[in-house]
Write a structure and sequence with these properties.
Blueprint: E1 2-3, E2 24-25, E3 28-29, H1 30-40, E4 45-50, H2 54-61, E5 70-75, H3 81-93, E6 98-102, E7 105-107, E8 122-127, E9 138-140, E10 146-147, E11 153-162, H4 179-187, E12 191-195, E13 200-202, H5 206-217
Parallel strand pairs: 1-4, 1-6, 4-5, 8-12
Antiparallel strand pairs: 2-3, 6-11, 7-13, 8-11, 9-10, 9-11
Protein name: Mannose-1-phosphate guanylyltransferase
GO molecular function, one term: nucleotidyltransferase activity
InterPro entries: Mannose-1P_guanyltransferase, MurU, NTP_transferase_dom, Nucleotide-diphossugar_trans
């Protein structure tokens, strides 16, 4: 599942008439890179949630055939935040664990991120804190468990392997952030983490988008 429903307000005028997932990097929409990376690790059945200017995303990507994947859309008349959006998409996602990625991150994907969950409700990909979020989100211990407290701190990279039951008890069509669901999983000792030291960037502002453009243009 690709999360693509947000307004992208930190992008200011760049997203006044264009949804953030369609902003261009290296001459191509950002979301196309996600689709290609998902396909490269064997994921060809992809659900995308859409809300703000969602028609543009659906028109641009279609059914996914030209990218060699199958695309389906979970339409949110009003954006439901992360957990609410996942809950709304469950009829399309099915009953098995699924891979989740934010449309506004740039990251390589590896099979090591996607090993079976076991009894966990989710496994988050974690990265070293960037300068704009030095306080971090969670502590990852030596056994691969995530904790709300503890040092050193890592940041949730916007990618995770999740079991549908993480959000299944939420009320559909109701906005809900993801963090309360993650805290609940921590309390059950069912939230794992994978420390990623490869390529990663949070493309949340025009400045970070410009830095990514420079990076891609020099590859």
């Amino acid at each position: 599942m690709i999360l693509a429903a947000g307004r992208g307000s930190r992008m200011r005028e760049l997203t006044d008439n264009c949804p953030k997932p369609l902003l261009r990097v290296g001459g191509r929409p950002l979301i196309e890179y996600h689709i290609e990376r998902l396909r490269s690790v064997g994921m060809t059945d992809i659900v995308i949630n859409v809300s703000y200017l969602g028609e543009q995303i659906m028109t641009a990507l279609g059914d996914g055939a030209r990218h060699g994947v199958r695309l389906r859309y979970s339409v949110e008349p009003t954006a439901l935040e992360t957990a609410g959006g996942i809950r709304h998409a469950l009829p399309l996602l099915g009953e098995d664990p699924f891979w989740l990625v934010n449309a506004d991150v740039w990251c390589d994907m590896t099979p090591e991120m996607m090993t079976p969950l076991g009894d966990d409700l989710a496994r988050l990909v974690m990265v070293d804190p960037p300068e704009h979020h030095l306080r971090g989100d969670f502590h990852l211990d030596d056994t691969g468990r995530l904790h709300e407290q503890g040092e050193p701190r890592l940041v949730y990279a916007g990618m995770a392997l999740m079991h549908p039951s993480l959000v299944a008890d939420l009320t559909d069509n109701t906005p809900c952030p993801l963090k309360p669901c993650l805290i609940n999983a921590i309390e059950q000792q069912r939230l794992g983490g994978h420390y990623h030291q490869g390529e990663w960037s949070d493309i949340g502002t025009p400045e970070r988008l410009a830095l990514l453009e420079q990076h891609v243009s020099h590859q």
